[in-house]
Structures are given as C-alpha cells and as structure tokens.
Amino acid sequence: MLVVEDEPAIRELIAVNLRHAGYGVAFARSAEEAETILNGALPDLVVLDWMLPGQAGDAFARKLRAQARTRDLPIIFVTARVEERDKLAGLESGADDYLTKPFSPRELTARIKAVLRRRAPQLTDDVVRIGGLELNPATRRVIGEGKPLDLGPTEFRLLHFFMSHPERVYSRTQLLDEVWGDHVFLEERTVDVHIRRLRMALSATGHDDLIETVRGTGYRFRRG
Amino acid sequence: MLVVEDEPAIRELIAVNLRHAGYGVAFARSAEEAETILNGALPDLVVLDWMLPGQAGDAFARKLRAQARTRDLPIIFVTARVEERDKLAGLESGADDYLTKPFSPRELTARIKAVLRRRAPQLTDDVVRIGGLELNPATRRVIGEGKPLDLGPTEFRLLHFFMSHPERVYSRTQLLDEVWGDHVFLEERTVDVHIRRLRMALSATGHDDLIETVRGTGYRFRRG
DNA sequence: TCGATACTTTCAAGATGATGACGGGAGCCG
DNA sequence: CGGCTCCCGTCATCATCTTGAAAGTATCGA
Fold it and tell me: Above 80 in pLDDT, residue B193?
C-alpha cells in the first residue's frame, strides 16, 4: 500500500486507518518520491492525491500505466475537486476508483477493499471457502473438514492465492511474482518445494489432491 | 541480446552468464558501436551501461526511445552509482529495469527474464469451443461432451492450433512451424505420430474423427 | 498390382516433477 | 548473550512422463 500525499494531516489520517485495517503502508510526499519507492518493491495498491506538488496526480497515474511493470497496479485517487470532468479525467488516466475529500475512514477502506477484490482477491481479508477448505486471512487460519491445518507463512500465502484463483493454471514464474513478490529472484524449483510443503500440510485432511500438477505448465488448484 | 559496456571485465562476465542462460549475445563498446549493430538486426533486449565513453547511457536510451524502430526495445541499465536520482533518471529515460554493480549472475538473468516476460504479448487465454470440444488455455483443460480429456503438452498445443484454425488444411511443415515453432528441425513424420497421439486422446469421447487426413497435403480440423 | 503415403508400435534419450536433506538466517527464550 | 526452533531457498537424486525417430504395417490411388 503506497500513499502519495503531500498534506501531513491527510497522510496521517490515511495511515492510521490503513494500519488499523491491517495493511502495511509506505508514504511518498511527491510523485518523484513515489517513483523511488516503486523502483524497489511494488505495493499492492496506490492511493494517489490528485493535487501534488510538481507533478499532477493524473500525469503520474498515466506514467504508471505506461510502464509495463506498474501497469497493473490498482490506483485510487483522492481529490478535493468534485467536478464531473475531474472524475472523468481521473478514471481516464487509469484510476480504479476515486475518493472525494472529505472522506470517512470507512469509505476509504471500503473502496480499497472493493478495488482489491476486483483486481487482486487474495489481498483482501475475505474468508475463502472452496473445495472443502476454509481459509481465513484475518485469523490466519485454515480449516479442512472441521480440523485446523497447520501452515507456514509461505504455504499460507500460496494457498490463499490458489484458493482465490481456482482452476487456472499458473506457471512457477507467475507464482513467484504473485505469491513471493515482483522483485524477488528465486529459483523456479523453489516453487516445487513449497508446493510439496503445502501438499504435506493439506494431506492431514486429505485435501492435498486439490493442488494439481500440470506437467510442462505449472500448477492448478482444483475447485472441489 | 545486445550488451553495451566498455569495461572488458564486466562485458565478459555478462557474456558468460547470458550465453549460459541460452541467449545469443552481441557486444558494443560504445553507443556509436551499438547504433551500428542496431542498424543491422534488432536484439530482443539491450543491456546498457550507464557510464559510457562519449555518450552517456541515458542519452542513448532516450535516443532509442525516440526512434520508432527501437522504441519498444526493452532496456536494462547497469550502473555503479546507487544514488536515488540515478535510479529515477534511468527509469525516466525509458529503462525497463536496472542493475547496480556489483550484481550476481542470477540477478542479471532473473531481471532479463522478468523484463522479457512483461514485454511478451499476452497469450490469448480465450476459450475455444468447436465441434463439441471445449479447450480452455487458462485452465489448460479440454472437455469433450462433459468429460475431461487428458492431453500431453504437445498434443494440447496442436489441438489448440487446430481448433483456432478449423476447416483449413495444413501441411506437416506448416504444423511444425505453427505448433513447434519455426526454426525447429524435425522429421515431417513426427507430425504423424503426434496426430496419432492426439487422436488417441480424443477418441476417449469419440472426437478423434474431427481430425481429418488430407492425403498428399496434410491435416484438417473439421468444424463440428 | 505397384508405389506412394499414412498409420502404428516401439524405444532410448531427454525433460520435467517429486522428494529428502542441508545450511543459513530470523526471531524467541532462557 | 548463547542456544534453539522455525522456516526458507537450494541442491542432488530418483521416478516418470514426453518426445522424436525409426521401422514395420496398412491403405490409397492409378
């Protein structure tokens, strides 16, 4: 979660609420600062002030959309202006949603959740139920047929991603990007190992067969 | 893969690793030399040293971005300077990623792979339905009359191609080009074998007759 | 019937995935 | 501080599956 906002008061407001909602938050005071941060690791979502010193928010958004690496970053605009044309311009420049100041903390988190649900389901706190498994991100618990399952951190994220994107095949590379993060460089084989560990854990309730190997392609999480 | 780098040691390091990773590598000691090479054939990607004799790396990058023919060439910067401003300027001038010296071979190839991956055109994930068969690239599943069919990697690609181009006859040579990729040298008879394997797989639901032999010409996938 | 063309079967080499083990690092506890 | 545990990424090895080619058989068309 990256918040690009120059007014300290607003920044603080957003910070408190996002942290409270369980998100990790990074800040930038300007577009330039934001770029620096983005060059490191990619956040899951960007909250962007429309009015920034130096570079306008929508120009920055367009820039993000123009670069391959940041093209798919969800963006939420925060703006004080409410005219229709701004809304239009905002959405045209690639925003996923926008908030008009003043906004309630609840509205902020609600919109973030909505955007994430649409763009990256595995980043929300929603409980996922599928194939006889129930995964609860908020409590970090997984239950299979009533019994709790014991997963390590990585296995949990991997399972969460799979359960949020069932049936679809993912290559090892895609999984590394999605589950480990975009600027992480690991051996593809590492995925195999974690798949194994996840299967081991799931086998406690016989759910290990939900994870299918698609030879030559990757892995797939079977729906029920 | 074009590497623009004036230091022989670094050049050698990069060369060894890229070759080992299976890439063909060309070199240039300066921007001018690089231009000469680019006037010939376009590489898939350019690894560019930030500090070059004569012309600075970022100026060269901008130049590449300005010309239509080289606009879409992925560029990875190699730099010894680590200041934030350099990272910014580098990416602003159109780099897709950058490496800071010293870097590990693994990191180099990983970033190259990542950049190429991002540039690669999205494989069409559209579901293809025809002749009672349903092929879904996203899930990598094929279903005939409700029953799932089991195909190997090559058979899957072959079927995908056929279903995407029904009713048209393809020679063995064309199929080799389209399904295996041009520049592979295989016996034409090998196609027969894979056709057989595909028919075998399809016969599980009686769809094997969708693939017709056109004697003296090749094969054709029948619509329904 | 004959020659050309296609179909099948078989096989070894090469890919690819599964598995068990290892060493290191982060964090925790005493 | 140590010592310990947990978890992670990597590797070597083993088991399996795919693949391409070869060779024998079947079929087609003239």
Answer: yes
How many pairs of residues across A and B have Cβ atoms under 8 Å apart?
44
Output the CA torsion sign for A82, A88, A91, A92: negative
Q: Which nucleotide across the nucleic acid strands is nearest to B191, CA versus C1'?
A: D20
pTM (predicted TM-score): 0.78
CB contact under 8 A, A169 and B118: no
Give per-residue pLDDT as tens, B12-47: 888 877 877 667 788 888 888 888 888 877 888 888
Please give the share of chain A, as a percent, with pLDDT higher than 70: 91
Max avg pLDDT among A42-56, B52-66, B78-92, B122-136: B122-136
- Which of B196, B133, B189 is closest to B160 using CA atoms? B133
CB-CB contact of A172 with A182 (8 Å): no
SS3 of residue A187 by DSSP: coil
Nearest beta carbon to residue A185 from set B106, B115, B152: B106
Inter-chain residue contact A35 with B138, CB threshold 8 Å:
no
